[in-house]
Amino acid sequence: MHFRTKQVHAGVAPDPTTGAILTPIHQATTFVQPSVDRYMERGFTYSRSGNPTVRAFEDKLAALEGGVDAPAFATGMAAINAVFMAFLDAGAHAIISDVAYGGTYRLSTQVYTRFGVEFSFVDTADPAAVEAAVTPVTQLILTETPANPTLKLTDIRAVSDIAQKHGIPHAVDNTFLTPYYQQALELGADMSVHSTTKYLDGHNATVGGAVVIATQDHADRVRFIQNSTGTIMSPMVAWLSLQGTKTLSVRMDQQAANAMEIAEYLEAHDKVETVAYPGLASFPQHNLAKRQASGFGAMLWFEVIGGAAAGKKLMDSLGLWALAENLGSVESLATHPVTMTHAAIPPEERARVGITDGLVRLSVGLEDSRDLIADLARALDQV
Ligand SMILES: *Cc1c(COP(=O)(O)O)cnc(C)c1O
């Protein structure tokens, strides 16, 4: 089956007792067992360990990205935490992309360091730098591509080859492109992590996460943490995410088309200093974007002339664009990473990796691009 058919049908089937076309929201805590000897026969025992609505979403995601399993979590951070817990021992070392979601940085530096784990934040756009950072105790490589918020890309195939050579699991945070545009496992990654909060839900309706996993051995480890720590996604969130995922490709194609138009508009504007969108020929890694993904996504960033002060003025002047954290939803959002999503990263570290004070991040939604551009034009007139 092709992707668009799978996004509608994988993991779900009409309810066998009623014929209901949508998977029911199974809000039950526990599942009655036919007899002591036939415990687990129907696959479910207690909703922390597995739930039929959650399982439908997990099965759909596994099918969409070619995994053996895709445990779903309460949030994207819970999914990343499960990967850390599954693969990092006390005294271990992990390699993380130097540009990554602020929460990933915080979890690493403020939680896992307390348990004696050491982290190297490496420019994973340079595979040689990844290889150089490997130590005898490196137990995990986590890359984020495109990275939040600078959109720096990592060559998934090249880093996966290095990881495999050293026997280290490689997880890719694939939140920005989703399986629709980027098949991380096919490119060699062992795991693909998602904040389903973003494009998979797509409607600003839930927070959730998932890890699509290539091998059963790794899946068993992550499932064990999901049950042990009790961080499974809730049935209601799984149900909403299931419905959202059915329209993923249609939303992303339109949002990406809008993003391309907006990027071109900004690039031509005389008050705009820089624009970064992987679909622009001027994007430094445009060729890698074309090679490893089938679309450029709908995230972009720009800086206006006048730096941070002008950027803030612009964001405060927007009307149709909501000033908010989150991304990937049908509503267009503007974010100031330095005060919002990436505040947990120290200023010197942010400056080192290009998260400038004037950086305006746009998550392009599903509205008519003419209205989105008109609103940007009005705000640009204010600065
Ligand atoms: C939002 C985000 C996360 C964290 O997900 P939550 O659902 O907010 O916990 C992780 N990685 C990336 C790239 C994100 O954008």
SSE inventory with pairings:
Elements: H1 3-9, H2 52-65, E1 72-73, H3 76-87, E2 93-97, H4 102-111, E3 118-122, H5 127-133, E4 138-144, H6 156-165, E5 170-173, H7 178-181, E6 191-195, E7 209-213, H8 216-229, H9 235-245, H10 248-268, E8 272-276, H11 286-292, E9 299-304, H12 307-317, E10 322-323, E11 333-335, H13 347-352, E12 360-363, H14 369-382
Helix pairs in contact: 1-2, 2-9, 3-8, 12-14
The structure holds pyridoxal-5'-phosphate (PLP).
Number of domains: 2
- CATH fold-level name of the largest domain: Aspartate Aminotransferase, domain 2
Q: Tell me the name of the CATH homologous superfamily of the largest domain.
A: Type I PLP-dependent aspartate aminotransferase-like (Major domain)
Spatial order of strands in the largest sheet: 1-7-6-5-4-2-3
Low-confidence runs of at least 5 consecutive residues? none
Strand content: 5-15%
